[in-house]
Amino acid sequence: xxxxxxxxxxxxxxxxxxxxxxxxxxxxxxxxxxxxxxxxxxxxxxxxxxxxxxxxxxxxxxxxxxxxxxxxxxxxxxxxxxxxxxxxxxxxxxxxxxxxxxxxxxxxxxxxxxxxxxxxxxxxxxxxxxxxxxxxxxxxxxxxxxxxxxxxxxxxxxxxxxxxxxxxxxxxxxxxxxxxx
Length: 181
Known about the structure:
Oligomer: single chain
CATH topology: SH3 type barrels
Structural class: alpha+beta
Order of helices and strands: HHEEEEEH
């Protein structure tokens, strides 16, 4: 048995086995050819120096999906006319469908920003999540703001609570339009 690593540790070698000393090459193999490293011309920058590629991609997508910035202004917190939790909102699509609902929450995430609307249609609660920068959405109208602004950013407590839950908002809006005429 060989014992020499540290005190108490034992490394066992079987009978007839032995260790070889480390071997190093102390000579250089002569090479007759030279290594040539090709240097290529650098490619032009796709994004300006100092900007993040992710930010640049999001900026390009915003320019593509919202050139007039009206959708960006609807979710901008600094804008006084932005959508807030508790607002009654109508969303119009290209195919002519509309959805009216109370805003339960807004997720502000640049191009992937979404709005969660809740309505009660024929006694059944319906929640729908809309991507704000979806090209099929042609209009987002704020129909009514709450009398007392909501302090929470997400109004999930409205779900299942008969006292706070929304009624049939689409029907209420139609009745209000008839009264105005």
